Amino acid sequence: xxAALLSPILEQLTRIVAQEVQEEVNLVVGVKKQVxxxxxxxxxxxxxxxxxxxxxxxxxxxxxxxxxLKDVCYDMDDVLDEWxxxxxRWKMGDAEENTHSQQKIRCSFLGxxxxxxxxxxxRRDIALKIKEVCEKLxxxxxxKAMYGFELYRATDELQRITSTSLVDESIVSGRxxxxxxxxxxxxxxxxxxxxxxxxISLVGLGGIGKTTLAQLAFNDAEVTAHFEKKIWVCVSDPFxxxxxxxxxxxxxxxxxxxxxxxxxxxxxxxxxxxGKRFLLVLDDVWTENHRQxxxxxxxxxxSAPGSRILVTTRKHSVATMMGTxxxxxxxxxxxxxxxxxxxxVAFQERSKDERERLTDIxxxxxxxxxxxxxxxxxxxxxxxSKRTREEWERVLSSxxxxxxxxxxxQVERGIFLPLLLSYYDLHYVVRRCFLYCAMFPKDxxxxxxxxxxxxxxxxxxxxxxxGDMELVGEQYFQVLAARSFFQDFETDEGEGxxxxxxxxxxxxxxxxxKNECLTVDVNTLREATVDTSIERVRHxxxxxxxxxxxxxxxxxxKGLRSLLIDTRDPSLGAALPDLFKHLxxxxxxxxxxxxxKEIPNEVWKLIHLRHLNLAxxxxxxxxxxxxxxxxxxxxxxxxxxxxxxELPKAIGKLIKLRHLRIYASGVAFIPKGIERITCLRTxxxxxxxxxxxxxxxxxxxxxxxxxNHIGGSxxxxxxGGGKEDASDAAEAQLKNKKRLLRLLLDFxxxxxxxxxxxxxxxxxxxxxxxxxxxxxxxxxxxxMTLTRLQVLTLRICENVEVLPPLGRLPNxxxxxxxxxxxxxxxxxxxxxxxxxxxxxNEGEIARxxxxxxLKTLSFWHLKEVEEWDGIERRSVGEEDANTTSIPIxxxxxxxxxxxCPLLRAVPDYVLAAPLQTLVIDVCPNLxxxxxxKGEDWQKISHIPNTSYCLKNS
Length: 953
Description:
This is Disease resistance protein RGA3. The protein is of the alpha/beta class.
């Protein structure tokens, strides 16, 4: 009876599922057609986008059209990403896009693929969205014809201003030192280059005064008397060899040449300068194409000794390409000098009363020039026409980019034009990367690696056959840095580089992005969220105080793709669920430094999320399992989250994850399944589970086997502390991680570590190695194969008595030995004694010099070392008939010896090295011997920086 009742139900369900399968197929086919149509329309407009991008700066209507196109492109990107995410989940065997819905109908028992009806309905919704985007794009494509767009040509009206050798010296200030330096280099003697002309380059930001400085030097009386011929050519872009050759020849001969072929022109130039001492200024050089320069260069040889070429450029790479023998980086002017330039222009033909009434505002306006003389001149020229105090205050409040309140053409051409020219010289994708930085507050310190990951999250960087997205991003960063869009660089191991943007550059970026990027703080919150079209914002930074509650008005920014929240407000955690519900298009979420205690389960709604930064969330205790439904997640950072003990156990589902940073967090182990994330580029810490309740959940070292893209730094912790053995370590195949540069092997002091450490052989290109807590007697044989190793630290290896011949490592620059059982440092340590048991081939590492590149040497807590025998007779200058001299530590600059109580002496060859710093502490024998009253004080008295205890002993 039951079977009879169930049979028709099963048949009906079978028909329903079959129908759904067919509808899915039809749906996919239909979407593909719509996507193809989208691509076709975009390609049709692509050829005019370059022209539109330039015209929008001056034409508000064009700007509105471009903004509409951007909005549709964002919408298209979102809906296609939503579709591809649904397909990805389907392929991964998760038929339910919303895995947390309770209304699921699974039909696998019928022999058909599993479908969730909600999933099918959602895919239909996506298809409808794609259709709507197609219709919007159709309308925008029709409007294109209204604006008469053309293919962009080099002769576009936004061309660079042609410079001349003339300059108004009455308004030049603050460049006396640079002027003297340039003139000195032009007049002074120098080593002649192979082609007989010494080149000098002036490099700096557009508007900084490079051309002005070159003009001053060009017109200097001594310079004029020194050179027989002076030639000034404004090169600009494109680099036209024929035009440049004609300009040179015209100034050499005093008339325009009648030649048109480049070869003929260059031949005539060569004849005209033969035997003459000339000065050639090539102003505003942009090309990095070495071939173009190589065509011109031979024609400039054959001149008299002392000839000079002076190059001005915004690109350091140009100066390098042209082989300039001396480079002068033009720095910003002081506020005082900027005020002087501004006042000279702004207060021309003004009465004394006007000056007194407006000087205080003028000083504030001039302070916004930020050291750029061009900005000071332009703003001064702008204020010449402003008579009332109200007009001056209005300009002051505009902050340069409020162009609706001032003479738009003057401001754009006077201040933004230098930046526009540099900006439009960039590849379109690099421009997008630069403009993205407008979302950060002024003076915000950015990290290079973090910024590149942000670019990747936004889809700006694409995988190429020639390298990873990260490498492409590195190239784009270098381009922007060379153009002076970034400044204040500081080396940072974690981020590679820390840097900022100049205020004027930041203003420019914000002007170009208008409402697309927005920064709000506690002072501008109301204005930004009420007066600004928050619905149009795509990238948002919020700097909120603890007293400021999280604004719900942000929920209106439905298309938001980047959100950076800087706040210590504890109520942020309670605001996150609603935030995730409304802002589902977010690709980047940065909550670093906040006081949140958990990420809510609703995070699964952020289906587009690529980058999640939770660094320094010191109160964060848990991450939800729902985070593992973020199939597009590329980067997760929980560094310094001390209270976070575990990662989500299903983290292996995040197959697109490229960067996982957990350094200094409380995470005790890596969950099983990490082996599935084969595109992983960053895994800074891998902790071997030491057994206990986590053992069944923890990944084994073997899971590192196929993660061969891991690069940068890797810290393997608790080695030997669990059930891991040498076979597990061997399966990890660290030697295949060719991108790995820095490795830390952290042992648990177990004496049975010898076989284990041999199995952990790293790639031969490793640059930094730290071995800590190693309990074995012998260091690994593979250590001496690391020919590119620059930094080596052996820390708390308390059973190691004999060191390998470390002096043979050809690139070692820093060596730190802490808490070893070593009793003697001899020729074996230096690598200058033959070791019959050495496994290394005779020619594998150069043995000409011991420690040839070592700069820093430190011994800490070597409490048993007594002798440091340097084999003095083999030192430089002490060879005899029976020995061969071997230089030892020829580049050593810093020596630190701490708490080595038994050590009696330091070899003379060490003290004869070019030491700049010597620190000896808690070493009674050495202090007595080398102190100021000691027998060997004279051997160290020449060292500039010696420790206090030696100077007073």
